[in-house]
Amino acid sequence: MPVFMVERHFAEQLEVAPETAEEINRINDEAGVRWLSSFLSSDKRKTFCLYEADNVDAIRAAAVRAGIPADAIMELSGTIAPDGTFAVM
Predict the structure, then answer these.
(1) Which of 11, 33, 55, 68 has the fewest other C-beta atoms within 10 Å?
(2) Edge-first strand listing for the sheet containing 46-52
(3) What is the pLDDT averaged over residues 79-87?
(4) Residue 29 and residue 13: Cα distance in Å, rounded?
(5) What is the pTM of this model?
């Protein structure tokens, strides 16, 4: 399944309560999207999230339903390790 990076900008500092994460995961499940992990900027106003989904439209639809931004979405092709090796995602 394709892997995507989603960049999100929040106007205020982000705090994700467990019940909020559960609701986001429920919405994602219904849209066929799997949240893998998120990285939070030090000012807590920007996240970079990894998702598995069939396509960008599924991620965008889930974000709209959850009421969270999806400012940029890009499909990832793989990872590069410090030794220069490439691994397909």
Answers:
(1) 11
(2) 34-40, 46-52, 3-9, 72-76
(3) 96
(4) 26
(5) 0.89
